[in-house]
Design a protein that fits this description.
By secondary structure, the chain is an alpha+beta fold. It is 23% helix and 32% strand.
C-alpha cells in the first residue's frame, strides 16, 4: 500500500523503520509506478478510509474473491483531485505515444509502461478488502479506476487469463 501514497506522515514513517524497514526500502517503494494519493488527501490507511467512506460508494466482488469499494470523491470537496491515475487503457493513448511503450517487470510480471510528463489527476478511488473470519483484511487502495490484479502464476487458469487480458490492454504511466 505504501506505493500509493505521495508522502508518509511521520508516525507511519517511524513505525515502518521500527518494524525493520530501511529508509532505502521505504523510498524505493514510494517511487514505484502506479496511482498515488495526494498528501493533502491521505497519508495513511486510517485517514484514507475515513475520507473515502464518508461518501457514497459501490461494492463489488472481484475475480479472486476480494471485495472492492469504488467511489468518486466530489470535485467540490477536492477540486484539485485526490490523486493521480497510474494505469490507463491503451485506447486512451495516441498511436504516436503507443510507439513509446516499453515493457518491464512490475511485481515479477512483464507489463507495459509509458513515460509521460505529468500523471493525470483523478477523483476516483478503489479499496480492496479480503473477507476473513474477523470481518475484512485491508489489501490495498489506489486512486483511479478499478483494475484487475497483476497476473500471478498461483492464480487459477481462468483468473490468470482474465488478469493477463486486462494488462495486455493497459499501461502503467511513469512520470519522467
Amino acid at each position: 500500500m505504501l506505493r500509493h501514497f505521495e508522502e508518509l506522515d511521520e508516525n507511519l514513517h517511524m513505525r515502518l523503520l521500527n518494524h525493520g524497514y530501511t529508509q532505502g526500502q521505504i523510498q524505493e517503494t514510494l517511487s514505484l509506478p502506479g496511482s498515488t494519493f495526494f498528501s493533502y488527501f491521505a497519508n495513511d490507511i486510517k485517514e484514507l478510509l475515513e475520507k473515502v467512506l464518508a461518501y457514497p460508494y459501490k461494492k463489488s466482488t472481484s475475480i479472486n474473491g476480494t471485495h472492492i469499494i469504488e467511489t468518486t470523491i466530489p470535485f467540490e470537496a477536492f477540486p484539485s483531485g485526490i490523486g493521480t491515475k497510474g494505469v490507463v487503457s491503451l485506447n486512451e493513448i495516441s498511436k504516436e505515444k503507443q510507439a513509446q511503450i516499453f515493457y518491464e517487470k512490475n511485481r515479477k510480471f512483464l507489463l507495459a509502461h509509458l513515460m509521460i510528463d505529468e500523471l493525470p489527476v483523478t477523483n476516483n478511488c478503489n479499496i480492496v478488502l479480503r473477507p476473513s473470519s474477523a470481518g475484512y483484511n485491508f489489501i490495498t487502495a489506489f486512486s483511479g479506476l478499478s483494475a484487475m490484479p497483476i497476473p500471478d502464476y498461483k492464480m487459477t487458469k481462468a483468473q490468470f487469463d482474465a488478469c493477463k487480458s486486462y494488462w495486455d490492454n493497459h499501461v502503467f504511466l511513469k512520470k519522467k
